[in-house]
Design goal:
By secondary structure, this protein is mainly alpha-helical. The protein has a domain at about 30-105: Cytochrome Bc1 Complex, Chain D, domain 2 (Orthogonal Bundle), CATH 1.10.760. About 60% of the residues lie in helices and about 0% in strands. The chain is globular, with a radius of gyration of 19 Å.
């Protein structure tokens, strides 16, 4: 028990707990991919970029609650966001973001059904 009272002992315990938590959550999709089957690595990368770009201007939850609106609307919204000077979304970024959101629209079993 004395090991827990030293700074190094507490740091070691914290490292083990943090590692365990990260491992237990590593396979569970969250954020944009919540409710979808295990996405391929390229979709995970696409959605990581989408999360970074979208969260730059608004909470990512805003995108999450909009799932199910259909791919045509996503194309429209992504283009509107891309055209905002502060978005930092390039045309190639827009294509990547769309691939992520299209995957979510097609694969998410928990999302409301939208029109496309």
């Amino acid at each position: 028990m004395k090991a827990l009272t030293t700074r190094h002992g507490r740091a070691a315990v914290l490292a083990v707990l943090t590692s365990g938590l990260a491992t237990s959550c590593a396979d569970a999709p969250h954020g944009l991919l919540a409710g979808t089957p295990a996405p391929p690595p390229e979709v995970q990368q696409d959605c990581a970029l989408a999360t970074a770009k979208c969260a730059r201007c608004h909470p990512i939850e805003r995108v999450i609650v909009s799932r199910g609106i259909g791919v045509r609307r996503w194309q429209m919204y992504i283009e509107q966001m891309r055209l905002k000077p502060s978005s930092g979304i390039s045309p190639s970024d827009a294509d990547i973001i769309f691939r992520c959101l299209r995957f979510v629209e097609e694969a998410c079993t928990d999302c409301k059904q939208g029109r496309s």
